[in-house]
Design brief:
five-stranded antiparallel sheet, three-stranded mixed sheet, single chain, alpha+beta, Immunoglobulin-like
């Protein structure tokens, strides 16, 4: 009887480890991120992918940095190894290649910029609640228009 119980426990544990491995694989997400509306095909689109409101508001480090050569009107990149959850993106088109968003003396952007969900800010960046979007396990796509 003890031998049968040991076999049952071993099979159950093996099944549990297979299930855990399957869950780990299923939890991985990939995001194909596209930027459209690139009027000047020079420089790079730069941005950050964040997974919290604090990171979105620059109170915590971003999850990923994004830099894509802006050599076409529409460009894309893939971000792999993400966990399902809520994310947001802040981005700008660094036309002059200095690594910073250009601004005028009043702090207004002089280079095109955009937020996920094509959210629009009012006297500042768009709010997290407007820019946040859901990434699910598996393949995901999100498109942002640079303006």
């Amino acid at each position: 009887m003890n031998q049968l119980k040991s076999i049952f426990i071993a099979v159950a544990m093996t099944g549990a480890s297979f299930s855990a491995a399957a869950v780990a694989q299923d939890d991985s997400a990939t995001l194909t991120l596209s930027f459209t509306g690139i009027a000047e095909q020079e420089g790079a689109v730069m941005g950050v992918l964040v997974d919290s409101e604090d990171a979105y508001n620059d109170k915590a480090a971003p999850l990923r940095m994004i830099m894509i050569k802006a050599d076409k009107a529409e460009i894309a990149t893939q971000l792999a190894g993400l966990k399902p959850g809520r994310y947001a993106i802040k981005s700008f088109h660094d036309i002059d290649g200095d690594g910073q968003m250009g601004t005028n003396p009043y702090g207004m952007p002089t280079e095109p910029f955009a937020f996920s969900n094509n959210a629009v800010g009012n006297m500042g960046p768009a709010k997290w609640a407007e820019a946040a979007f859901e990434i699910k396990a598996g393949d995901n796509a999100h498109s942002i228009e640079i303006k």
